[in-house]
Amino acid sequence: MLLENKTAVIYGGGGSIGGAMATAFAGEGAQVFLAGRTPEKLETVADKIRAAGGQAETAVVDALDASAVNDHIDAVMAKAGSVDVSINLITNEGLFQPLADISTPGFVGAVSKGLTTQLITTKAAARHMVKQESGVLLFFGGSDHANTSPGLGNVQVGMDAVESLRRQWAVELAPHGIRTVTLLTGGVIDTFPDIPEMEAAKRGIIDASPLKRAATMADVGNVAAFVVSDKGRSIASTQINISFGACYG
After folding, report:
1. 5, 45, 54, 173: which one has the fewest Cβ atoms less than 10 Å from its Cβ?
2. Is residue 174 part of a domain?
3. What's 171's domain CATH number?
4. Which residues constitute the domain of residue 109?
5. What's the pLDDT tens digit per position in 32-76?
6. Is residue 156, in this structure, part of any structural domain at all?
7. C-alpha span between 249 and 240 (Å, rounded)
């Protein structure tokens, strides 16, 4: 199995993308630690993993609370003996409006929240990974400078900011054997609500791909599992495009 004897910490592990990654990691032998603010969602993912024979633990952790994040990662380290993978899937609050219609405090607050959680969780994991001289920090969303469209508000700006943060981590942590990788996505349509209002958005994502396809949650999990495994060890300090060619990065 790709991730046997590996430990993965997933912030936002109760969400659809977090759950997909956790399920794929556990299926490849990893012990997964799911962290988030909603215990019911975390336990739903963990129960599914356990039912399939995998290892999963949950913890209620507010990623905006540095003390709570550090206490949790220290507990993971004490129990598992290593922190091999850390992923933060907590995104900015999406304000899908023209920039002129978004209040300045609203815009700044939403982007700041996403950056703050990324900084806190990455610092916590890096503290242990530097001592190990190994580890993978996986990010999700990515920066696609070639494709922009009106009405995205703070969404792409926030992703660009996180990707810039990831690049800075890369140059600082690579000397310690730590890989930083972003999965660049044009949208995962099976995470969208199944309502008529979302059909145009789903079709737009599919039509943007030369292959006329969109990544599924299973695709996300499978690619993520390979990237963080030792078989993906040459993938570092970069984005991996999982958009079926819709994004250019």
Report:
1. 5
2. yes
3. 3.40.50.720
4. 7-241
5. 999 999 999 999 999 999 999 999 999 999 999 999 999 999 999
6. yes
7. 9
